[in-house]
Every structure is written in C-alpha cells, then in structure tokens.
C-alpha cells in the first residue's frame, strides 16, 4: 500500500493543499504562484522520487513569504502523515549534491524530534532576490518549516558556492536525495528502527 497523504491548510494569508506519495516516481504538479519555488519543489519531487501535487493561493500582492512558508508547513505535515507508523524505515539519509560551483550536504533523521541546523550559506544569500520574487532568506524558512512539521532532524550545510540560484537548488536537491534514502523501506528492519520502540 502506497504511503501517501493529502493535507489542506487555510489561513487568512493562504490556502494550501499538498498531496504526497513517498513511494512514487518523482512526478510533480506544482503551482504556488512563485516561479522559482515551483522549480525547487519540482526538483525536490524529482530527486526524492516523491509524487507531489501542490496548489497554493496566497497574498502574493503583499509578499511571497506567507505562501512559501505555509506551503512548506503543509508539505511537512503531509510527509509526516504519509510515514504512518514508520515500521521498516531506513530512517537515516545523507546526500552531497553539486550544482556547478555550488555544493550542499543534507543529513536527515526521521526521528520524530524536529531539529534543524542550516550552516555555510554565504551572508549575502539572505538578501538576494532569486527569480525576481524569492528572497534567499526564504530557503532557510522552507527547510525549517518543512522539517519541524515532518518531525525530522535536518542538518543542511553549504560547502561551496557563490551563485544564489545554484546554492539554493543544490540545497533542495541534497535534501531530496537524503529524504529518498531515509524513507526507503529496508526488508531487514523489523518494526520501528529505534531502541526505544517508537519514533
């Protein structure tokens, strides 16, 4: 049975619906109204092999921040629901991904204990507009909001890079590949992969 979930969240700032299938083939259908973010979420789906459908409508006339962050929240909630009881999980995943001069590493633990460390981003990234609408500082908001709502421990490190587009895309792709490894079911794992008996 496919591990899948659909979550909808409505606030005064946005309405977001996300459907995710962890056992998919990387098919994405993403529409947030923020072009660069759509590109990043499509890359996330492609390289995690998650099937992902996203529909978001928000107050873009004010700023893209609400729509971007709220979408990450709902994506995290959908992944948490799709993981179900977590039996048989590999649990840990790690990936280092280049994009030209940029290099990013992501380490994921499906721990049930949300914690996020993002390091190595050049200071100027936070103040750079990418694609005309996506401020570089939003990338960190996405990773934090996603991981906290998915119940993940996430360490994301930028090892090299100067082009803001390349840096953020390498981060998303590294996260995708780490997630792909972490959610994989290992037939040798009996029950939940924790000595506590729960995640």
Structural account:
By secondary structure, the chain is α+β, with helices and mostly antiparallel strands. Helices cover 33% and strands 30% of the residues. The chain has helices spanning 35-48, 65-82, 137-150, 164-182; strands at residues 4-10, 14-21, 28-31, 51-58, 92-99, 102-109, 115-119, 129-130, 134-135, 153-160. A four-stranded mixed sheet has the order 1-2-4-3, covered by helices on one side. A four-stranded mixed sheet has the order 5-6-10-7. A two-stranded antiparallel ribbon has the order 8-9. Helix 1 (35-48) packs parallel to helix 4 (164-182) and helix 2 (65-82) packs parallel to helix 3 (137-150). The longest helix is centred in the C-terminal third of the chain and has 19 residues, at 164-182. It starts with a strand and ends in a 17-residue tail after the last helix. The model has no long low-confidence stretch (mean pLDDT 97).
